[in-house]
């Protein structure tokens, strides 16, 4: 929750300082200093919360780490060694170097902080994209893990490129509304009016371009899901049966029922879904029921692959290895079926039990449709709201009519948390929609987790809940405190009370 704001504020600070260096106007330096202080609070707490996840892979996801450690660990190590250290090093110079560096030198440092934070996001998202589209690796039957093949294949994974821009720019939206909302607070109170008006205008323009980029890259990700993760796209759209182009409606609201595999009611807009997802008017989108049926041969093939691999582990016979290689692309489906096998061992499945195991496994290939459908809808609805809000903010700001519209300023102020919620809904869509896989088509989630007891997990989660609640309370306290204080520490502004200025002069 802290990261999106960090990503966006760095480039906003760089933009403000650029204007200061070019124009020499003190107000833009004040803007950089003030918003930089709020960025620093968020950055410190974001680092504290992010570190625990580095350890969680080993403690809570040990099988995943063993199976996919080469692929996931490489970009994670680069992020830690290059991007995070670069960001952490230059952030000190950014905060304490104002009187020690030249204007261009300090500006360069601010841009390096922004670059470092966004490079951190790049490598994290490269790692995540490898879980969705495991390019650049192959499964090694000797070591029983995915082996790293191609650095280029990992870095230039299409999912990584689209997801990086989409997710990073979502952080820019969060930062834009953060700056805009606090500036609206000052304008409502008629404090720091020149400072607030300039900050508001920069944030509004920054926000509208960022929102357009988020929507555009979201469309690219939807197209990739259509091609590579059809179960996710079908769940996102609540599509139980294969679409009938071009009429198929885009469903605005529905109540998907996972148990019955149907929706209680649907409200949709006809002729929208097919061009939206396929970028054509004739290509159908396969429904979840048909995807289940299409998975049956892969489940059978996967059971064969896992059985051959188990025999090869025991006897190292070339015939078993050959049989495994013939079916290895479906191995993940065999692992998925193990949950329904006698003793969770697919080698124990008798011929007469095979069809029953396949039928029980078929529904497992689908994610939770209700969660995926509604998390996607909430993200989209918020995205449209942001576009309208930033468009109105830009218009009113350019027309110098902000203070005539106090209700709109209040709306901006109360909307500050919404981009963070939209980002969370986006991640729920991405991660819940990928289920039942941690590594898509390769490793099921239930096999990825460590074998902790329920009591251990409850104790661990309770401890982190308390700790993180303290972090968010500290974050909110400090943000509210310094936002209310405003930029007055950097000098009086032209809208200060004249009587007060007279007292100061005397």
TrEMBL record:
<keyword id="KW-1133">Transmembrane helix</keyword>
<feature type="transmembrane region" description="Helical">
    <location>
        <begin position="108"/>
        <end position="126"/>
    </location>
</feature>
<keyword id="KW-0997">Cell inner membrane</keyword>
<feature type="transmembrane region" description="Helical">
    <location>
        <begin position="200"/>
        <end position="218"/>
    </location>
</feature>
<keyword id="KW-0479">Metal-binding</keyword>
<feature type="transmembrane region" description="Helical">
    <location>
        <begin position="169"/>
        <end position="188"/>
    </location>
</feature>
<feature type="transmembrane region" description="Helical">
    <location>
        <begin position="407"/>
        <end position="428"/>
    </location>
</feature>
<keyword id="KW-0472">Membrane</keyword>
<dbReference type="Pfam" id="PF01654">
    <property type="entry name" value="Cyt_bd_oxida_I"/>
</dbReference>
<dbReference type="GO" id="GO:0005886">
    <property type="term" value="C:plasma membrane"/>
</dbReference>
<keyword id="KW-0249">Electron transport</keyword>
<feature type="transmembrane region" description="Helical">
    <location>
        <begin position="374"/>
        <end position="395"/>
    </location>
</feature>
<feature type="transmembrane region" description="Helical">
    <location>
        <begin position="34"/>
        <end position="52"/>
    </location>
</feature>
<dbReference type="GO" id="GO:0020037">
    <property type="term" value="F:heme binding"/>
</dbReference>
<comment type="similarity">
    <text>Belongs to the cytochrome ubiquinol oxidase subunit 1 family.</text>
</comment>
<dbReference type="GO" id="GO:0009055">
    <property type="term" value="F:electron transfer activity"/>
</dbReference>
<protein>
    <submittedName>
        <fullName>Cytochrome d ubiquinol oxidase subunit I</fullName>
        <ecNumber>1.10.3.-</ecNumber>
    </submittedName>
</protein>
<keyword id="KW-0813">Transport</keyword>
<feature type="transmembrane region" description="Helical">
    <location>
        <begin position="6"/>
        <end position="22"/>
    </location>
</feature>
<dbReference type="GO" id="GO:0016682">
    <property type="term" value="F:oxidoreductase activity, acting on diphenols and related substances as donors, oxygen as acceptor"/>
</dbReference>
<keyword id="KW-0349">Heme</keyword>
<dbReference type="GO" id="GO:0046872">
    <property type="term" value="F:metal ion binding"/>
</dbReference>
<keyword id="KW-0408">Iron</keyword>
<keyword id="KW-0812">Transmembrane</keyword>
<feature type="transmembrane region" description="Helical">
    <location>
        <begin position="456"/>
        <end position="478"/>
    </location>
</feature>
<dbReference type="GO" id="GO:0070069">
    <property type="term" value="C:cytochrome complex"/>
</dbReference>
<dbReference type="InterPro" id="IPR002585">
    <property type="entry name" value="Cyt-d_ubiquinol_oxidase_su_1"/>
</dbReference>
<keyword id="KW-0560">Oxidoreductase</keyword>
<dbReference type="GO" id="GO:0019646">
    <property type="term" value="P:aerobic electron transport chain"/>
</dbReference>
<keyword id="KW-1003">Cell membrane</keyword>
<feature type="transmembrane region" description="Helical">
    <location>
        <begin position="72"/>
        <end position="96"/>
    </location>
</feature>
């Amino acid at each position: 929750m802290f990261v999106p704001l960090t990503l966006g504020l760095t480039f906003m600070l760089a933009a403000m300082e650029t204007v200061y260096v070019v124009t020499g106007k003190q107000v833009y330096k004040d803007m950089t200093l003030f918003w930089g202080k709020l960025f620093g609070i968020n950055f410190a707490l974001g680092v504290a919360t992010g570190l625990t996840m580095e350890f969680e892979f080993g403690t809570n996801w040990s099988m995943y780490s063993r199976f996919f450690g080469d692929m996931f660990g490489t970009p994670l190590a680069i992020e830690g060694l290059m991007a995070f250290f670069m960001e952490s090093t230059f952030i000190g110079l950014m905060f304490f170097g104002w009187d020690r560096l030249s204007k261009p030198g300090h500006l360069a440092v601010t841009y390096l902080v922004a670059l470092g934070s966004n490079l951190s996001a790049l490598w994290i998202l490269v790692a995540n994209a490898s879980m969705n589209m495991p390019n650049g690796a192959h499964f090694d039957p000797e070591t029983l893990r995915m082996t790293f093949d191609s650095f280029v294949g990992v870095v230039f994974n299409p999912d990584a490129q689209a997801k990086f821009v989409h997710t990073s720019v979502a952080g820019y939206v969060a930062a834009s509304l953060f700056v805009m909302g606090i500036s609206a607070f000052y304008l409502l109170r008629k404090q720091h009016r020149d400072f607030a008006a300039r900050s508001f205008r920069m944030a509004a323009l920054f926000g509208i371009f960022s929102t357009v980029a988020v929507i555009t890259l979201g469309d690219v990700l939807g197209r990739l899901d259509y091609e590579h993760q059809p179960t996710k796209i079908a769940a996102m759209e609540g599509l139980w049966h294969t679409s009938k182009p071009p009429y198929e409606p885009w469903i605005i609201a529905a109540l998907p029922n996972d148990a019955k595999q149907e929706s209680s009611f649907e409200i949709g807009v006809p002729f929208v879904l097919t061009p939206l997802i396929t970028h054509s008017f004739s290509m159908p989108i396969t429904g979840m029921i048909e995807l289940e049926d299409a998975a049956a041969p892969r489940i059978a093939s996967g059971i064969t692959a896992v059985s051959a691999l188990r025999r090869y582990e025991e006897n190292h016979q070339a015939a078993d290895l050959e049989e495994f290689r013939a079916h290895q692309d479906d191995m993940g489906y065999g692992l998925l079926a193990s949950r329904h096998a006698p003793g969770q061992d697919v080698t124990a499945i008798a011929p007469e039990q095979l069809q029953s195991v396949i039928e029980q496994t078929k529904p497992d290939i689908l994610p939770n449709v209700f969660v995926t459908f509604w998390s996607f809808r909430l993200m989209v609805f918020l995205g449209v709201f942001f576009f309208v809000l930033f468009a109105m903010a830009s218009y009113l700001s350019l027309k110098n009519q902000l203070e005539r519209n106090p209700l709109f300023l209040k709306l901006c102020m109360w909307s500050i948390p919404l981009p963070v919620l939209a980002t969370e809904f986006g991640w729920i869509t991405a991660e819940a929609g990928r289920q039942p896989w941690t590594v898509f088509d390769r490793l099921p989630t239930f096999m990825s987790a460590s074998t902790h007891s329920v009591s251990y997990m409850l104790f661990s989660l309770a401890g982190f809940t308390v700790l993180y609640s303290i972090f968010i309370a500290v974050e909110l306290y400090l943000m509210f405190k310094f936002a209310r204080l405003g930029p007055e520490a950097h000098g009086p502004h032209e809208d200060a009370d004249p009587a007060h200025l007279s007292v100061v002069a005397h």
